[in-house]
Amino acid sequence: MDNNKTVKQEENVAILGDKQIKESEMSLEQKYFTKQIADLRNKKAQITFELDQVDAALNVFQNSFIQSTKETSKEVLKSETKTLNTEGGK
Questions:
Q1: What are the CA-CA distances from residue 27 to residues 33, 34, 35, 51, 55 (Å)?
Q2: Residue 51 phi, psi (nearest 5)
Q3: Where residue 71 falls among pLDDT bands split at 50, 70, 90?
Q4: 14 strand-pairing partners
Q5: Confidence at residue 72, expressed as pLDDT on a 0 to 100 scale
Q6: By C-alpha distance, which of 36, 79, 66, 34 is closest to 25?
Q7: How far apart (Å, rounded) are the C-alpha atoms in residues 53 and 63?
Q8: pTM
């Protein structure tokens, strides 16, 4: 069994239009920019993920509020109907 296997690690590349730019060919400034871009893309994905959760929770609370107003309206109508029936029976 050969324990001295070498693992080939591929070099990072940036794709700009139809060009592939190897990290080893980039200046320090370009490497910095690509790291910023990667970090911002990750943050955007995380924020989008969290926004999906917020949207779902917001919908639940909005629908619950709407449902509670419908129930309150029914209670008010029942109360007013009882009042009208009581007053009309005098």
A1: 10, 11, 12, 36, 42
A2: -65, -35
A3: confident
A4: 21
A5: 81
A6: 34
A7: 16
A8: 0.62
